[in-house]
Amino acid sequence: MNKYLTGIILAGTVFVGATAFSGRTGAVVGKFAPELDICLVGQKSNDSVDFRNTGEGYKLINFWTASDVDSRLKGKIYTKWLENSEFQNNKLNYLSVNLDEDERLFREIIKIDRLKEDSQYACGNSSRKIIKEYDLQNGMKTFLVDSKGEIVMINPSTEDIEKLL
After folding, report:
1. Contact 62, 96 (CB under 8 A)
2. Is CB count within 10 Å lower at the N or C end of the chain?
3. Structure confidence by residue, pLDDT tens digits, 46-87
4. Using a CB cutoff of 8 Å and minimum separation of 24, what contacts does 16-25 make?
5. For residue range 1-34, what is the model confidence (pLDDT) as tens digits?
6. What region does 144 belong to: left with phi over 0, alpha with psi -120 to 50, or beta?
7. Do 28 and 19 form a contact (C-beta atoms < 8 A)?
8. Mapped to the 3 state alphabet, what secondary structure does 113-132 carry?
9. Distance between CA atoms of 142 and 101, rounded to whole angstroms?
10. CB within 8 A of 144, min separation 6: which ones?
């Protein structure tokens, strides 16, 4: 009986340890935001962005596609709010990340929606990986990430962000 009890305790400890280790990243509040491979509009090569321990305030990451109208509208709302806000470049950095694989379509949407190119990023070939890691298969989302790289809010309103900051 003692052997069985020891085996169960040992198996439980291994399971809990493995779960805690594997759950350190993901697209949920309290987990580390997955690393991104993105490219600023006009650049040819991707940069890898790791949000952990940057020590630079919060990051607002809005994922969008041309076909997801809600995500495009949300991006415009965030952009307009940040233009009239004291938070940008101080306590909050904004990344608008397009997940379309067609660069021509991406550039056309930037023109149509009158978006600033200096906050627009494309993912190109890494789009599928990002969609999986950020759980975007059923629609685009926006993540607020703190200076430690942990997700603190998903799809926050501008009012939610103002309360936090």
Report:
1. yes
2. N
3. 667 777 766 678 999 999 998 899 999 999 899 889 888 776
4. 25/133
5. 554 444 444 334 333 333 343 444 568 999 999 9
6. beta
7. no
8. CCCCHHHEEECHHHHHHHHH
9. 19
10. 58, 59, 60, 61, 151, 152, 153, 154, 156, 161, 164
**In degrees, to the nearest 5, what angle opens at C-alpha 106 toward C-alphas 102 and 107?**
120
Show the DSSP H helices in the chain as ranges: 2-22, 69-83, 103-112, 127-133, 158-164
Are 68 and 140 within 8 A, CB to CB? Answer: yes
Say what the pLDDT of residue 158 is: 94
The token pair at 66 is 């041309």
CA distances in angstroms from 53 to 9, 15, 49, 50, 68, listed in the order given:
35, 28, 12, 9, 31
Matching residue, tokens 């969609």: 131
Q: Identity (one letter) of the amino acid at 155?
A: N
Kindly state the tokens that stand for 101.
């694989």
Q: Please count the other Cβ atoms lying within 10 Å of the Cβ belonging to residue 153.
A: 17
How many residues does this entry show for the chain? Answer: 165
Q: How confident is the model at residue 40 (pLDDT cuts 50, 70, 90)?
A: low
